[in-house]
Amino acid sequence: MKSPQHPNRSRPRRAEPPGRVQRRQRPRGPDGTILEGLITLLLLAAAALGVAVWNGVVAVAAVLAFLTPANLVSWLAAASFVCFAAFGIDKARAESGGWRVQESTLLLLALLGGTAGAYAGRALFRHKTRKQPFSSNLFAVLVLQVAGLGAWIGWQLL
Asked: pTM (2 decimals)?
């Protein structure tokens, strides 16, 4: 009768086929200790984090250099035009019973700088003027943009 094998005891290893890569071992330092390997990994991670932070600072500086008054006005004019057109398209589709532009899309267009176009489209097309959640969300977008504009102007004055 066979004796049952203990559950913690490993089964005998099968011979591995030729060319098969052995299992990876834990990272080890120059003298072979695991602790030195972990310290090396932590130092490499800290260096990578430092490079990422430096690249982030450079990217922010590049964006701030791009935010000139002329570029900002051009962006706001284009975004307002696109948002105004989206309100007109949505109004036409609402009257014809076609597929509508989602409210989230209209709010996103307003958030991206088209708030002036959104309010102009609402007034001209008489569209989405009484829908309360949409109106309050659009007003919140306006407040955010005015606060952002104030912060940008304050940044420019520093």
From this structure: 0.56
